[in-house]
Amino acid sequence: MSATWNRSTSPPRLDLSVRVPASTSNLGPGFDLLGLCLDLFATVTAEVRDDGLGRVETDGSAGWLENVLIESARAGLELGAAPDLSMRLGLSNEIPVARGLGSSGAAVAAGLLLGATAAGTRSQAELERSALVDAAVELEGHPDNAVAALFGGCRLSLRTATGWRVVHQTVHPSIGFALAWPEAPLATARARAVLPEQVPFAAAADNPRRLAALLAGLCTGDVQLLTHGLVDHLHEPWRLPLIAGAAEALAAARAAGAFGATLSGSGSTLVAVGPVDRAPHLARVLGDELARHGALGGARAAALVEDAPRVEVVRSRDGSAW
């Protein structure tokens, strides 16, 4: 980051922007563990002023994500020891909200990155991205989407005795992803409320085997491993009934050649995993089946996003207060 604050007049202003990807999570057995970034994006801008007021607000464009953005940006400023900076945030969002595609995780990552970058620009002390992980998990409540959005690619988030460990998971280039979501949202709180406090021992024992197969299949592209791995016993059986046509759509995608199909996060988006050249067809199959059972929100093929988000300095200048 080459921009610096010009203190010849007051208050100086810095304009930042960051583009953060959507993410699918769980992919069956990777519950609250696995997040994989996909090519729908939320772009968040920040007007930053060194005015000593510590005011963080939005321009009204953030909708449901307003509080998440504000709290995340504040956390980023505090981590960078600059809570007195003021920020005005704007959002341009392609990610369907409350559909299991990591819209809130993307907002958390964007706010943290913008706040930490603004603080680091003033202090000329860059904050390591890994230092944001604890804050991201605390803000989001679970690591999968927010951590993936911070780092890009497919990520496993492991809690260790010394803190969170973020591991990159290779995804074979032959693997493609297809998405479809109904018009109706599904709040994460509702999707978590239906989960049982206990599951049968056989189900608990089988899920780690499925996860091992999934990770090996993602790395190698092995169809048999992916088919075995894209199955869950801990959350999907209770969440599928919340989404009209979901079970039928997943079955149709498998019949159409998907290696496997499952919920994206807690839903209501469905994700099919299959040959990369078949992803557009699989998206149509998922979408057609959902449409038969109600209003379809959207359907599309999606590509893995490996690159981590980068905060860009749009301009740095002096100016009047907001």
Note down, in words, how this protein is organized:
It is built from ten helices and eleven strands. The protein has 322 residues and is of the alpha+beta class. The protein folds into two domains: 164 residues, Ribosomal Protein S5, domain 2 (2-Layer Sandwich), CATH 3.30.230; 128 residues, GHMP kinase, C-terminal domain (Alpha-Beta Plaits, 2-Layer Sandwich). The strands form two sheets. Strands 1, 2, 3, 4, 5, 6 and 11 form a seven-stranded mixed beta sheet that branches. The chain has a four-stranded antiparallel beta sheet with strand order 8-9-7-10, sandwiched between helices. Strand 5 and strand 6 form a beta hairpin. Helix 3 runs antiparallel to helix 4. The N terminus is likely disordered. Its main location: cytoplasm. Its EC number is 2.7.1.39. This is Homoserine kinase. It is found in: Cytoplasm.
